[in-house]
Amino acid sequence: MALSLDLLLDTMRHGSIDYCEFLRIPSMSAGVYRLPAGAVDTQSPHTEDELYYIVSGRASITVGANEHEVRTGSIVLVEANVPHRFHSITEELVILVLFAPAEYSNRG
C-alpha cells in the first residue's frame, strides 16, 4: 500500500473533512487529522493507545494534566482513555494518527 498525503489532504479540504482514516487492520488503524488555525478540537478520549506525528503546523496539546507545545516533527503518545485535546492552534495542523489496536476496537 502506498498513498499520497497531498492527495488525501486535497480530498479532505474539498469535502470539509477533518479526519480521514486510510488504514484499518485489527492490530492498528491510521488516519490524517487536519485542524485549521483557530479550530476547536472536540475529540473525546479513545479506548486505544494513540500516537500523533505532527506533519505540519503549530499548536499546544493537553494530555491528562500535562501540556505540550507541538510543531512539525513532534510526536505525542496518548494512552487509552486519557483525556486530550489540541488547542491554541496558530498554524494549520496536519497530523498522522496511529491507533493500536485499531480505533474503537476496545469499545464495549
TrEMBL record:
Domain Cupin type-2: 32-97
Entry keywords, A to Z: Metal-binding
InterPro entries cross-referenced by the UniProt entry: Cupin_2 (IPR013096), GPI/OXD (IPR051610), RmlC-like_jellyroll (IPR014710), RmlC_Cupin_sf (IPR011051)
Keyword Disulfide bond applies: no
Pfam families listed in its UniProt record: Cupin_2
Top-level taxon of the source organism: Bacteria
Name by which UniProt lists this protein: Cupin domain-containing protein
